[in-house]
Amino acid sequence: MDSNNRIEISADAPQRRWLAVIGMISIIFGVLALLFPWWATLAIELVFGAFLLTVGILELVRILFDRPLDGVAPSVVFGILAILTGALLLVYPLQGMFTLTLVLAIFFLLGGLFKTASALTLRPARGWGWLLTSGIVSIVLGIVVLAALPASALWLLGILFGIDLILFGIAQVIFATATRQILRSGAI
């Protein structure tokens, strides 16, 4: 392989350590989210509410300083909707947890239907079965989440977030370790 096609992997030990540290912190927070899914779900809902509130305020401030040429109505409507939605999520967090879980269930269902339809149109192309499997799994997840509502609203987002954090953390730690091993072997 010629040197222009090489992937740059830093030999810097502090960077590898930081990858490992970030990975371990991610794993710890993931485990905490799995142990305390209600609190993790509530935290996700509150962060999302604060994010929407902030985005809405920033959008309205932007309009004051940067007058769009195509009119301000769409930006004003978006800013006000973001502020209202963010405020509602912050003021009514339990209802927000339910709403976000319902949106997730609908996302799984619709995404699963589209993936399944796409897989069937791609048949017999190579890999169409994996797309079909992904679609069916998404549909099943959507049905399970809907069937478990409203109780699932109190824990589901926290569980999914915890799993994601753990997988991300494991990937970071493995990458930091693999980078060290690759550098020691002289493969790079």
Word description of this protein:
With 188 residues, the chain is mostly helical. It has one domain (14-182). It contains six helices and no strands. Helix 3 crosses helix 4 (93-122). It starts with 12 loop residues before the first helix and ends with a helix. The model has no long low-confidence stretch (mean pLDDT 85).
Note the total helix count: 6
Unreliable stretches covering 5 or more consecutive residues: none
Radius of gyration: 22 Å
Q: Tell me, what's the shape?
A: globular
Distance between the termini: 11 Å
Mean pLDDT figure: 85
Count of the separate structural domains = 1
- How can the largest sheet be summarized? none
Percent in strands = under 5%
Please trace the helix and strand order, writing H or E for each element: HHHHHH
Structural class: mainly alpha
Binned, the helix content reads over 70%
Summarize this, please?
The chain is mainly alpha-helical. 81% of the residues lie in helices and 0% in strands.
Main features:
mainly alpha; 188 residues
Q: Any chance you could write out the topology, listing elements then pairs?
A:
Elements: H1 13-35, H2 37-65, H3 73-91, H4 93-122, H5 128-148, H6 156-185
Helix pairs in contact: 1-2, 1-6, 2-3, 2-4, 2-6, 3-4, 4-5
